[in-house]
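Trying the structure run again after the queue cleared.
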Amino acid sequence: QVQLVESGGGLVQAGGSLRLSCTASGYIFRINSWDWYRQTPGKQRELVASINNSGSTNFADAVKGRFTIYRDNAKNTVYLQMNSLKPEDTAVYYCKAEHLTFQYRKDPYWGQGTQVTVSS
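Done. Tokens:
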């Protein structure tokens, strides 16, 4: 139905920057909102940033002032710009889309995850 593909992860030194992207493909009616989560071994997956269908954004306290989320609706793509990266930002990052069908049903879809490693 809908597939999400992530890219942009990698290895970066502390203080550096990365930009993650997540693109939806398939039979798409409307993407209402996007979320970025991250997860480290032994810890619960945590919400990092969100953007809704009106463009309003929210960020976790740990990344405020350093991360930015934005979307390109024409490309069905969401981005996470990460600046001033810290070793504690190291995690697997997952995007999540809320897909609204023509039947007005809201379905969640998840990306495959991309590894971000920040060295000290």
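The chain has a mean pLDDT of 96. Worth checking whether this holds up in the mutant runs.
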